[in-house]
Write a structure and sequence with these properties.
The complex is a heterodimer of chains A (113) and B (110).
Chain A lengths: L3 E4 L2 E4 L4 E8 L5 E7 L6 E7 L2 E5 L6 E7 L2 E7 L7 E8 L8 E2 L3 E5 L1
Parallel strand pairs in A: 2-11
Antiparallel strand pairs in A: 1-3, 3-8, 4-5, 4-9, 5-6, 7-8, 9-10, 9-11
Chain B lengths: L2 E3 L3 E5 L4 E8 L3 E9 L6 E6 L3 E5 L2 E6 L4 E6 L8 E9 L5 E3 L3 E6 L1
Classes of the chains: A mainly beta (113), B mainly beta (110).
Protein backbone atom coordinates (compact mmCIF):
# COMPACT_ATOMS: atom_id res chain seq x y z
CA UNK A 1 0.00 0.00 0.00
CA UNK A 2 1.78 3.14 -1.24
CA UNK A 3 -1.14 5.47 -0.74
CA UNK A 4 -1.55 8.64 1.23
CA UNK A 5 -5.19 9.55 1.74
CA UNK A 6 -6.61 12.96 2.56
CA UNK A 7 -10.06 14.07 3.62
CA UNK A 8 -12.04 16.00 2.69
CA UNK A 9 -11.30 16.47 -1.01
CA UNK A 10 -12.99 19.86 -1.04
CA UNK A 11 -13.77 22.25 1.79
CA UNK A 12 -15.50 25.61 1.81
CA UNK A 13 -15.38 27.50 5.08
CA UNK A 14 -16.13 30.95 6.40
CA UNK A 15 -13.56 33.09 8.16
CA UNK A 16 -15.07 32.36 11.57
CA UNK A 17 -15.28 28.58 11.13
CA UNK A 18 -13.10 25.89 12.66
CA UNK A 19 -12.34 22.87 10.50
CA UNK A 20 -9.73 20.13 10.26
CA UNK A 21 -7.94 18.44 7.39
CA UNK A 22 -6.96 14.81 7.80
CA UNK A 23 -4.15 12.74 6.31
CA UNK A 24 -3.40 9.05 6.72
CA UNK A 25 -0.69 6.65 5.56
CA UNK A 26 -0.06 3.00 6.36
CA UNK A 27 3.40 2.61 4.86
CA UNK A 28 5.18 2.80 8.20
CA UNK A 29 6.67 6.15 7.24
CA UNK A 30 8.12 8.17 10.09
CA UNK A 31 8.10 11.60 8.44
CA UNK A 32 4.95 13.45 7.45
CA UNK A 33 4.53 16.86 5.83
CA UNK A 34 1.97 19.56 5.13
CA UNK A 35 2.34 21.72 2.01
CA UNK A 36 0.29 24.60 0.69
CA UNK A 37 -0.01 25.06 -3.07
CA UNK A 38 -1.52 28.03 -4.84
CA UNK A 39 -2.53 27.85 -8.51
CA UNK A 40 0.42 27.63 -10.92
CA UNK A 41 2.90 27.76 -8.02
CA UNK A 42 5.03 24.99 -6.49
CA UNK A 43 4.12 23.40 -3.16
CA UNK A 44 5.36 25.39 -0.16
CA UNK A 45 6.43 23.46 2.90
CA UNK A 46 4.43 24.34 6.03
CA UNK A 47 5.18 21.70 8.68
CA UNK A 48 7.32 18.59 9.09
CA UNK A 49 6.70 15.86 11.65
CA UNK A 50 9.38 13.30 12.37
CA UNK A 51 8.62 10.36 14.65
CA UNK A 52 5.39 12.14 15.66
CA UNK A 53 7.23 15.26 16.81
CA UNK A 54 7.05 18.62 15.08
CA UNK A 55 10.45 19.23 13.50
CA UNK A 56 9.81 22.23 11.28
CA UNK A 57 7.30 25.07 11.28
CA UNK A 58 8.02 27.28 8.32
CA UNK A 59 6.80 30.47 10.01
CA UNK A 60 3.20 29.48 9.40
CA UNK A 61 0.52 31.71 11.02
CA UNK A 62 -1.02 30.31 14.21
CA UNK A 63 -4.42 30.01 12.55
CA UNK A 64 -2.96 26.76 11.14
CA UNK A 65 -2.34 24.20 13.87
CA UNK A 66 -0.87 20.79 13.02
CA UNK A 67 -1.32 17.66 15.08
CA UNK A 68 0.14 14.16 14.79
CA UNK A 69 -2.01 11.82 16.95
CA UNK A 70 -0.02 8.73 15.94
CA UNK A 71 2.49 7.56 13.37
CA UNK A 72 -0.17 7.05 10.69
CA UNK A 73 -2.24 10.20 11.08
CA UNK A 74 -1.62 13.88 10.52
CA UNK A 75 -4.20 16.61 11.04
CA UNK A 76 -4.24 20.30 10.19
CA UNK A 77 -6.63 22.34 12.31
CA UNK A 78 -7.90 25.54 10.75
CA UNK A 79 -9.36 28.53 12.58
CA UNK A 80 -10.11 32.12 11.60
CA UNK A 81 -8.65 31.72 8.13
CA UNK A 82 -8.40 34.50 5.56
CA UNK A 83 -9.51 34.36 1.90
CA UNK A 84 -5.83 34.34 0.85
CA UNK A 85 -5.49 30.98 2.62
CA UNK A 86 -7.56 29.42 -0.15
CA UNK A 87 -5.30 26.84 -1.79
CA UNK A 88 -4.64 23.15 -2.29
CA UNK A 89 -3.29 21.59 0.91
CA UNK A 90 -1.11 18.58 0.26
CA UNK A 91 0.00 15.98 2.77
CA UNK A 92 3.05 13.82 2.10
CA UNK A 93 4.98 11.11 3.89
CA UNK A 94 8.42 9.54 3.55
CA UNK A 95 10.34 6.71 5.18
CA UNK A 96 12.35 9.29 7.11
CA UNK A 97 13.37 12.91 6.69
CA UNK A 98 16.07 13.78 4.20
CA UNK A 99 16.90 11.97 1.00
CA UNK A 100 13.82 9.81 0.73
CA UNK A 101 11.04 9.92 -1.83
CA UNK A 102 7.95 11.70 -0.58
CA UNK A 103 4.55 10.22 -1.36
CA UNK A 104 1.87 12.84 -1.77
CA UNK A 105 -1.83 12.58 -1.08
CA UNK A 106 -4.37 13.98 -3.56
CA UNK A 107 -4.83 17.14 -1.52
CA UNK A 108 -7.71 19.10 -0.03
CA UNK A 109 -8.97 22.01 -2.10
CA UNK A 110 -9.78 24.72 0.47
CA UNK A 111 -11.86 27.80 -0.26
CA UNK A 112 -12.23 30.47 2.43
CA UNK A 113 -15.18 32.79 1.94
CA UNK B 1 18.26 30.49 1.79
CA UNK B 2 18.08 28.71 -1.52
CA UNK B 3 17.72 30.07 -5.05
CA UNK B 4 16.34 27.54 -7.51
CA UNK B 5 15.83 28.53 -11.12
CA UNK B 6 13.96 26.67 -13.84
CA UNK B 7 12.43 27.84 -17.11
CA UNK B 8 8.78 28.71 -16.61
CA UNK B 9 7.43 27.00 -19.71
CA UNK B 10 8.65 24.69 -22.46
CA UNK B 11 7.02 23.18 -25.51
CA UNK B 12 8.13 20.06 -27.36
CA UNK B 13 6.84 17.67 -29.98
CA UNK B 14 5.61 14.15 -29.42
CA UNK B 15 8.42 11.64 -29.95
CA UNK B 16 11.15 14.23 -29.43
CA UNK B 17 13.66 14.70 -26.59
CA UNK B 18 13.46 17.60 -24.14
CA UNK B 19 15.90 18.76 -21.48
CA UNK B 20 14.62 20.75 -18.49
CA UNK B 21 17.36 22.61 -16.64
CA UNK B 22 17.55 23.56 -12.99
CA UNK B 23 20.21 25.74 -11.39
CA UNK B 24 20.50 26.28 -7.69
CA UNK B 25 22.50 28.22 -5.15
CA UNK B 26 22.72 26.89 -1.64
CA UNK B 27 25.47 26.77 0.94
CA UNK B 28 24.74 23.26 2.16
CA UNK B 29 23.62 21.23 -0.85
CA UNK B 30 22.66 17.70 0.09
CA UNK B 31 20.64 16.29 -2.82
CA UNK B 32 18.29 17.22 -5.64
CA UNK B 33 14.88 15.75 -6.48
CA UNK B 34 12.73 15.89 -9.59
CA UNK B 35 8.96 15.54 -9.31
CA UNK B 36 6.24 15.50 -11.96
CA UNK B 37 2.88 17.12 -11.33
CA UNK B 38 -0.06 16.85 -13.70
CA UNK B 39 -2.63 19.64 -13.50
CA UNK B 40 -4.97 19.09 -10.58
CA UNK B 41 -2.99 16.13 -9.24
CA UNK B 42 -0.38 15.53 -6.56
CA UNK B 43 3.36 15.53 -7.34
CA UNK B 44 4.97 12.16 -8.04
CA UNK B 45 8.64 11.32 -7.54
CA UNK B 46 10.86 10.94 -10.59
CA UNK B 47 14.47 10.95 -9.38
CA UNK B 48 16.96 11.83 -6.67
CA UNK B 49 20.60 12.78 -7.30
CA UNK B 50 23.13 13.35 -4.57
CA UNK B 51 26.35 12.53 -6.47
CA UNK B 52 27.54 13.93 -9.79
CA UNK B 53 26.53 12.12 -12.91
CA UNK B 54 23.63 10.76 -14.84
CA UNK B 55 20.87 8.53 -13.44
CA UNK B 56 18.74 6.78 -16.02
CA UNK B 57 15.28 5.42 -15.40
CA UNK B 58 13.46 4.33 -18.53
CA UNK B 59 12.58 7.32 -20.71
CA UNK B 60 13.64 9.74 -17.96
CA UNK B 61 17.21 10.62 -16.95
CA UNK B 62 18.50 13.12 -14.42
CA UNK B 63 21.95 14.68 -14.32
CA UNK B 64 23.73 16.54 -11.54
CA UNK B 65 26.86 18.68 -11.39
CA UNK B 66 27.44 19.86 -7.85
CA UNK B 67 30.37 22.11 -8.78
CA UNK B 68 28.18 24.00 -11.25
CA UNK B 69 25.02 23.98 -9.14
CA UNK B 70 23.21 22.47 -12.08
CA UNK B 71 20.86 19.63 -12.86
CA UNK B 72 18.75 18.62 -15.80
CA UNK B 73 15.90 16.23 -16.43
CA UNK B 74 15.95 14.57 -19.83
CA UNK B 75 12.76 13.14 -21.25
CA UNK B 76 13.05 10.90 -24.33
CA UNK B 77 10.41 9.67 -26.77
CA UNK B 78 7.97 12.27 -25.51
CA UNK B 79 4.36 11.26 -25.14
CA UNK B 80 1.29 13.46 -24.82
CA UNK B 81 0.88 12.27 -21.22
CA UNK B 82 4.24 13.87 -20.37
CA UNK B 83 2.54 17.28 -20.50
CA UNK B 84 2.87 18.35 -16.86
CA UNK B 85 4.84 20.56 -14.52
CA UNK B 86 8.31 19.34 -13.61
CA UNK B 87 9.52 20.46 -10.20
CA UNK B 88 13.16 20.61 -9.18
CA UNK B 89 13.61 20.43 -5.39
CA UNK B 90 16.84 20.93 -3.46
CA UNK B 91 17.74 19.44 -0.10
CA UNK B 92 19.89 21.58 2.15
CA UNK B 93 21.88 20.36 5.16
CA UNK B 94 20.41 23.11 7.29
CA UNK B 95 16.85 21.99 6.68
CA UNK B 96 17.23 18.33 5.76
CA UNK B 97 14.00 18.57 3.77
CA UNK B 98 13.60 19.56 0.16
CA UNK B 99 12.37 22.92 -1.08
CA UNK B 100 10.74 23.20 -4.50
CA UNK B 101 11.68 25.51 -7.32
CA UNK B 102 8.93 27.26 -9.25
CA UNK B 103 8.57 24.38 -11.72
CA UNK B 104 8.61 24.10 -15.50
CA UNK B 105 5.33 23.63 -17.32
CA UNK B 106 5.94 21.31 -20.28
CA UNK B 107 3.47 21.09 -23.15
CA UNK B 108 3.85 18.20 -25.59
CA UNK B 109 2.25 18.82 -28.98
CA UNK B 110 1.38 16.27 -31.67
Amino acid sequence: DTEVTQTPKHLVMGMTNKKSLKCEQHMGHRAMYWYKQKAKKPPELMFVYSYEKLSINESVPSRFSPECPNSSLLNLHLHALQPEDSALYLCASSQDRGGYEQYFGPGTRLTVT
Amino acid sequence: GQNIDQPTEMTATEGAIVQINCTYQTSGFNGLFWYQQHAGEAPTFLSYNVLDGLEEKGRFSSFLSRSKGYSYLLLKELQMKDSASYLCAVRDRRYDDMRFGAGTRLTVKP
